[in-house]
Amino acid sequence: MTVLDKVNYPNDIKKLSIAELDTLADEMRQLIIKKVNTTGGHMGPNLGFVEPTIAMHYVFDTPKDKIVYDVSHQCYPHKILTGRKEGFTNPQRYLDFSGYTNPEESEYDCFVVGHTSTSVSLAAGLAKSRDLKGDKENVIAVLGDGSLSGGEALEGLNNAAVLGSNIIIVFNDNEMSIAPNHGGMYENIRLLRETNGQAECNFFKAMGFDYYYVEEGNNTQKLIEVFEKVKGLNHPVLVHIHTLKGKGLLPAEQNKEAFHWIMPGTLDKKDDDTNSTPTENYTSVIVDYILNKAKQDPTVFAISPATPGAYGFTPDVRAQLGNQYTDVGIAEEHAVAFASAMAKNGTKPILLILSSFIQRTYDQLSQDLCLNNSPATILVHWGAITGADMTHLGCFDIPLVSNIPNIVYLAPTNKEEYIAMMDWSLQQTQHPVAIRVPFGNFVTTGIEDKTDYSILNKYSVVKEGAEIAILGLGSFFEKAEDLAKEIHKALGINATVINPKFITGVDEQLLDSLKQNHKLVVTLEDGVLDGGFGEKIARYYGTSEMKVLNFGARKEYTDRVPLEEIYERNHLTTDLMIQDIKSVL
Question: pLDDT band at 277, cuts 50/70/90?
């Protein structure tokens, strides 16, 4: 029997010796490696946080004592110890549990958390509520894996430091974010590591925290000793632990950025697999484009908020850009304001960001960027209806971005349009411009796009027809073309097919012309319908006799639902769309 066989819940580990706890850590690591290599997921941060998780559950009395995980990059060991071990031991149950904390799964999880820098704010709220009720439990916030650079983390620390009662911040310092850490505060973090926490200049002490440092952050016994010291204290405490990201898996230790999150089967790939000829895609196209533009124009500047790998900005690409690139850390709000000011001052910033994370920037988009009409360029990646976890959905960016005044939000359908939109955005000085990077199949026409994008909101009629007009936005343009073919087969109607290109405005002249020989306008968009592109079209036709059908996703949080199922229930399959069209006609 292994040590892990004896452990199902935190009370079980309290019966183990230190030697058994160390064996347990090794066994948990092997589970995580095997499962994540099979399903994909966060490898490095979880491997580095096994011993701290064991030590916390050994010392604290969870779930009465509450642990709040920041961003959940570090929660897999916690799940193994809190009744969800089978999700790591049984391949048939690998996908039964989320990769993030979720109270619906377990009473040991306090919140659904997938975005970063939130744990201290959430923990401070729990602690204040506890005090008001007269309760006595410990409240622990896990903060780490780069999340200290996020603005909310600093706001939370600022408030937690003056709480005047029990709150314990466990700062997991693995010397990394998703990519390497950047920013002035990390110089002080480095100094604290180098002085074993003894440096007089101490960021956390300056804020008012009682401070403890553990150099051997993967030493279970030493962690238990310090957690025993801080348990039950009646004032705010910060425990700074130095851990090794990727511990126990040599490739993850050596290449921390690449193994932060991996695809299924990554460990099974042979060296020969990397020698295949690279395939052109929207990521490679824009990387080459930005590198070329930066060489030609010293005012072109790329900005990443901590996720450079998602856009193909590998270390060698970053090195080529040199001082024409910055990683601002996990600080999307700052990234938008930073880009706005650069654009206002005559340079050409390009902010690359994921759809899920642009949700964090609404105020800066509205106030710092659009209110000031700064001509920055924003490339929104991974915007689509997907089967992702509920914390990382990319279907909400169209309503969020397209309804702010002044911004121009564009949706290319192929490589040539993407390049033409970038060219226009970088040379114009009239508008903030966002481009929704196509998601899915890479499409290239081989024909230069000569659209004059300075003439706003002019749609492109790709195929002339009658009775039915189909507007296929961005990555759903292919669906529009396929739907037109099936309409002809099923109804004998030659539908008009339109590529809108502009998400933020309505081509009134074109829409009015459709009234002459069309009965129905169909819109397709790869995002939620509420507040989206299709509703703009429906609203324009509101007082006319034109019928409008909007196809997209309903407003909901989906959680790892297969994409085919989402398409089915939203009538985004060709057969179901034709049924709806027949019923309207």
Answer: low
* Segment 352-374, tens digit of pLDDT: 999 999 999 999 999 999 999 99
- Summarised one tens digit per residue, pLDDT across range 185-238 is 899 999 999 999 999 999 999 999 999 999 999 999 999 999 999 999 999 999
Residue 542, burial from CB neighbour count under 10 angstroms (0-12, 13-18, 19+) = exposed
Q: Mean of the pLDDT values across residues 509-523?
A: 98
As a whole number, mean pLDDT of residues 295-301 equals 98
Contact 214, 223 (CB under 8 A): yes
Q: Of 31, 47, 40, 37, whose CA–CA distance to 90 is shortest?
A: 31
Helix (H), strand (E) at residue 237: strand 236-242
Written in H, E and C, the secondary structure of 142-153 is EEECCHHHCHHH
| pLDDT at residue 275 is higher than 60 | no
pLDDT band at 276 (very low <50, low <70, confident <90, very high): low
Contact 242, 397 (CB under 8 A): no
Let me know: does 475 contact 440? Beta carbons within 8 Å. yes
280 Cβ contact partners less than 8 Å away, ≥ 6 residues apart? 415, 442, 444
- Residue 253, H or E segment: helix 250-254
In whole angstroms, how far apart are CA 444 and each of 56, 280, 418, 524?
53, 10, 10, 21
SS3 572: coil
| Inter-residue contact 227 to 65 (CB < 8 Å) | no
Instruction: Give the pairing of strands 460-463 and 496-499.
Output: antiparallel
The 10s digit of each residue's pLDDT in 57-85 is 999 999 999 999 987 789 999 999 999 99
Give the three-state DSSP class for 240.
strand
Dump the DSSP string for 456-478. Answer: TT--EEEE--SEEEEEE-GGGHH
Alpha-carbon torsion (362, 351, 245, 259), positive or negative: positive
CA distance 340 to 364: 9
What is the DSSP secondary structure assignment for residue 332, as one 8-state letter? Answer: H
Three-state DSSP at 259 gives coil
CB-based contact 39:95 (threshold 8 Å): yes
Q: What is the DSSP-derived secondary structure letter of residue 122? A: H
The number of angstroms, rounded, from the C-alpha of 96 to the middle of its chain's C-alpha atoms is 21
> The pTM is what?
0.94
Task: Report d(CA 129, CA 106) in Å as an integer.
Answer: 21
